[in-house]
Amino acid sequence: MWRNALVVLCLCLLPITAWSFGAEGCGAGECRDCHSLTKEEAFKLLPPGASQVDSVEFSEVGGLWEVKGQATGRMFTVFVDFSKQYLISGRVLRISDGAEISRKIDTSAIKKEGALLLGREDAPVKVFVFTDAKCGHCRKLHQEMKKVVEKQPKIAFYIKVMAMLSSTELANDIVCSGSVDVLEQAMADQDVAKQTCESNAVKETLAFAKKWQIRSTPTMVLPDGSVLMGARPADDLIEKLSEFLPKS
Fold first, then answer.
1. Total domains present in the chain
2. Residue 53 near residue 65, CB atoms below 8 Å
3. Is the peptide bond before 223 cis (omega within 30 degrees of 0)?
4. Do 226 and 191 share a structural domain?
5. Which segments of 24-167 does DSSP mark as H helices, in order?
6. How many helices (H) and strands (E) does the chain have?
7. CB-based contacts of 60, cutoff 8 Å, min separation 6
8. Which domain holds residue 43?
9. How confident is the model at residue 93 (pLDDT cuts 50, 70, 90)?
10. What pTM did the predictor assign?
């Protein structure tokens, strides 16, 4: 499905990219040598509602700047073409691995408190996973994640439990238990013992998801902040995450 969406998006981008690299384009030099966009300029190009621009960088998609900012308390990423005549909003997926390059999440803003750890605490590669016990694709991904940590102990998953399909009460019971086993019981539609704790992790996770536009589960946030959505085979995950392993 995501490939079909990407095809549509690419068709929209083709005229922009071709125009940007026309007779008065970059020639034989680097694009950054003859194209520039400041945060102040980018802000003026945005529609009403944007409150600030945090960064402007060259996108890995040719002919575009990646503009990140905030609007009504939520983070956004849009793209501006080199002609400064077109603004592109929406998901942009990389064909090779399906990674969503139209946004990156600040991993330092994700709290480990309240997350369930699958894997070793000292694993150098840490992946945050937003999941829901009643989500079918989350259940599939969870089984693949277990295979990953068995095959590659240098990778660990910090699971943030969401209340999207699940009730808030169930999500709280899982988080308060602090146990992956309890999460797996809930995923198997088994009864989960009622738990009480002072944690606000479920509410905080929901607020974080709202701010960073996480609208579906499962959503994985990789160490560099890039986003992968949906269930993926263990071997594919290991191959993708291997690029973050320490070089030795």
1. 2
2. no
3. no
4. yes
5. 31-34, 39-45, 136-151
6. 8, 10
7. 94, 101
8. 2-104
9. confident
10. 0.74
